[in-house]
Each structure stands twice: as C-alpha cells, then as structure tokens.
C-alpha cells in the first residue's frame, strides 16, 4: 500500500518500513512519566471498582426483591447492566491503551472491545430515550 508524504504518493515506503526507522519513543510520544501513570491508574482504578460495585448492587437489589421490579426499575436495571459491561469489558482496557499508546490485547479483543463500546453506549441511549417516552 503506498503512503502519502507531503501530498505526494510514495510507493516505495510503506507504514511498516517507516515504523522500523522510528524509535519507540517517537512512535509513542504521549507516554507519561511513571508517577503520572501511578496517580492516574489509582484514580481510574478506584472509579472502575466503584462503578462495578455500585452497578452490581443496583442489579442485585432489583433482582432480589420482587416489589422492586417496576417498569422504571427495569429501565434502571438496563442502564446498570450496560454500565457494568462498559466498566468490566471496556474501561480498563482502553485506559491501559491510553497510558501506553499501545494495544497489547490482540486484534480479536480489539474487535470485541469496540463491539462492547458501541453496544453499551447504544443500550444506554435507547434506554434513556424509552424512559423519557414512558414518563
């Protein structure tokens, strides 16, 4: 595949060949210091843990008590389930990618990760839309 350099097509230089000539720090210029990574990781990790615990609590309460299964709470259950999927299957993996500027989880999980991202966002938007129409 030819690459475009300065508006002209250069068929002799592909992306893989040009990547070999660039050092690792030049390929990933947005890698922050180890101290910043530790701070961001601890903050983000605590947010994800709170999201998982909070959403599991909502789901458990709605499923455990029969009187909690109202129409509004079913919508809330759906939002909690979508947020739980986002927190478990998407958030931490994307955060690791943002920290390292490198996707280390393989091409299959890259596709799965994008699927879960689109699925959970769509589920949340449609649930909020249906909730507003219901009210």
UniProtKB/TrEMBL annotation:
Protein's UniProt keywords contain tRNA-binding? no
Instruction: Cite the entry's keywords alphabetically.
Output: Cell membrane, G-protein coupled receptor, Membrane, Receptor, Transducer, Transmembrane, Transmembrane helix
* Topological category with respect to the lipid bilayer: Multi-pass membrane protein
Q: Which residues form the G-protein coupled receptors family 1 profile domain?
A: 54-135
User: What Gene Ontology cellular component terms go with this record?
Assistant: plasma membrane
What start-end ranges are recorded for coiled-coil regions in this protein?
none
* Residues spanning the membrane: 38-63, 75-95, 115-133
Asked if the Swiss-Prot or TrEMBL record annotates the protein with the keyword Ubl conjugation, the reply is: no
Instruction: Provide the GO MF annotations for this entry.
Output: tachykinin receptor activity
Q: What compartments host this protein?
A: Cell membrane
Q: Which family does it belong to?
A: Belongs to the G-protein coupled receptor 1 family.
Q: What is this protein called?
A: Tachykinin-like peptides receptor 86C
Gene source species: Dinothrombium tinctorium
